């Protein structure tokens, strides 16, 4: 899995590519942990190139979202497609997160 | 009807990719369309990860996975030699709670159930045998 980050104003956009499964989720956890400890508190995760996600990936996202929320931060999700979107729907995550069709929509919401 | 594919390996996360490849190759050879593969991958990953994490408390063990097509149904048998554990007896998580209340975990077994059209568990000769049935059209 590839994790790319870039900054747009005060918002950190994280783009995921490949598979977020039980093997790759620990890397993602570490990345999120270090970003949060650096003080990032406005995160957008772009899923457009993520092909697959399992419960391990959802666990990473939920854990960071909880931490952000407790510290007054925000996490928005964008561009969920195909099997990834289905997993979010089945798990109920689709209704507990703020999810946007495009990254631009999520950025507008954040500003 | 005999199983057309069998793979046995150590219950370690590093073997996940090999296992998924074996099962999806089998499904493809049996004529499953590519858009059905993520369903199979998710069910198999969650079952395998559960075994890696919980089946062998006191050391290491193995997992065996066998696949076959029975009419239009893909049958996956997942076998381990660990502690007795019937996932079909577990309650589903509450998926309506918000971010603060929502518990981390418990989704793996839920996904196995949701992805499968039928699921059976039996304990036999000190083995856990989990059978997942996935219909080709859904």
Protein described:
The complex is a heterodimer of chains A (111) and B (138). By secondary structure, chain A is of the alpha/beta class. Chain A has one domain: STAS domain (Transcription Regulator spoIIAA, 2-Layer Sandwich). Chain A has helices spanning 25-37, 55-70, 82-91, 93-96, 103-110; strands spanning 2-8, 11-20, 42-53, 74-78, 98-100. Chain A has a 5-stranded mixed sheet with strand order 1-2-3-4-5. In chain A, helix 1 runs parallel beside helix 2 (55-70). The longest helix of chain A is centred in the middle third of the chain and has 16 residues, at 55-70. The model of chain A has no long low-confidence stretch (mean pLDDT 96). Chain B is of the alpha+beta class and 138 residues long. Chain B has one domain (5-135): 2-Layer Sandwich (Heat Shock Protein 90). Chain B has a 5-stranded antiparallel sheet with strand order 1-2-3-5-4, covered by helices on one side. Chain B is globular. The model of chain B has no long low-confidence stretch (mean pLDDT 92). Chain A binds chain B through residues 21-23, 52, 54-56, 58-59, 62-63, 65-66, 69-70, 82-83, 86-87, 90-92, 95-97, and chain B through 13-14, 16-17, 38-39, 41-42, 45-46, 49, 52, 95-100, 102, 104-105, 107-108, 110-111, 114.
Helical proportion of chain B, percent range: 25-40%
Write down the CATH topology of chain B: Heat Shock Protein 90
Order of strands in the sheet with most strands of chain B: 1-2-3-5-4
Low-pLDDT runs of chain B: none
What's the count of strands of chain B? 5
Task: Write down the Rg of chain B.
Answer: 15 Å
CATH level-3 fold name of chain A: Transcription Regulator spoIIAA
CATH homologous superfamily heading of chain B: Histidine kinase-like ATPase, C-terminal domain
Oligomer: heterodimer
Computed CA radius of gyration of chain A, to the nearest angstrom: 13 Å
Looking at the overall shape, the CATH architecture of chain B is 2-Layer Sandwich
Q: What is the helix/strand order of chain A?
A: EEHEHEHHEH
Distance between the termini of chain B: 23 Å
User: How can the largest sheet of chain A be summarized?
Assistant: 5 strands, mixed
Helix tally of chain A equals 5
Query: How helix-rich are the residues of chain A, as a percent range?
Result: 40-55%
Percent of residues in β-strands of chain A: 25-35%
Largest interface: A-B, 25 and 26 residues
Write down the domain tally of chain B.
Answer: 1
Cα(first) to Cα(last) distance of chain A is: 29 Å
